[in-house]
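Continuing the batch. This is chain 6 of the set; chains 1 through 5 are on the previous pages. Same settings as before, nothing changed between runs. Recording input and output for traceability.
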Amino acid sequence: MAAAVVTTAVTASAQTLTEAQARAAITPWYVLFNQPVQGDMRALQEQVLTADYESCWGYLPGECWGREASIKVVGGFAKSIPDMKFDIKEVLVSGDRVIVRGEVSGTPAGDLFGVPHTGKSFRIMAIDIQTIRDGKIARTYHLENWLSAAADSFAQSSESRAEALARISVEPYGRASSSSISQTIGGSMKFGTIGAGAVALAFGREALARGHEVVLSSRRGPDALGDKVAELGRGASAASVEEAASLDYVLLAVPWRNVESALKSLPAWNGRVLIDATNPFVETSPKLVLADLGGKGASEVVAALAPGARIVKAFNSIVTARFNEGPVKNGGRRVIFVSGDHPEPTAFIKQLIESFGFTAIDLGGLATGGRLQQAGGPLAGRDLVEFGHH
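Output for chain 6:
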């Protein structure tokens, strides 16, 4: 959001697979689940997965892992479910993507995700979306109803299935939901803010209204933010900038002249998400004056100041006053633009914006999309409304 403001993503042509090629690439992968105790797990996975392989079951931090973690995960099934079987029911191919609908079954012989078993068999549905590159699997998005399996096979004798579901809260592949993301509270997110001005408060109100938590911070320290915390109400708190920036999703909402100092000496980002809501104004009064960025986009500058952060440009292109008026205008929905170089957090922020009631439009990467939506770009500050899509 701006004081008075405001890609086409170009992707390399993907491989087009035949069904035979798709099955040849994916079948060895599912054999690993059907025969998890046979052979060298590392060598087998290296044969079927790319070196930069990524497995994801969601968009949030901690919900994706690489080949090394996959080796441990699949090997773990050998101990928990030695007779596990993945039965492929249907295969659909689109370009370099392979959608697999299957059925997973087995009889646990050991703890599953740390939950003691009862020896009962289970059967669940699974859906995978595999991306194939050079004959190997490069990425897997997967959905399996492990919670149902846990309730069926790990319920205590005195429990009903519903009681077991209530007791066992399981995330895929061995991480309890209470600890996978320390900032997740009862299914809601805890967002930090760097800055506690109009933009941060506007974002905070919307997030709190959807059941999330918001931790404000500013260079003045948490004690100076008591009135603003009280204004936001339940779910809001204040902390030091370092503490707020340590959360998995952090909103950067400070004047451009303060960006560098605000990001200095913060904890290593290590892949946490920085939502860049800034605009490169060096002056806002009596007139707006844009900074000379030396040919770079504003979010590219931010990225350089926050190495290791996954930057998502959002909430900067809509004037704060219009944002505060709400998403609906003349029967349509106001538009908020999003840009980012990392698909998962970008998609998550897009979903967050949609949950606020606005229409979110992904402009692609920071170099192109970010410049379109930042102050001085063609989409900056425009009160755009989408009609008829929803």
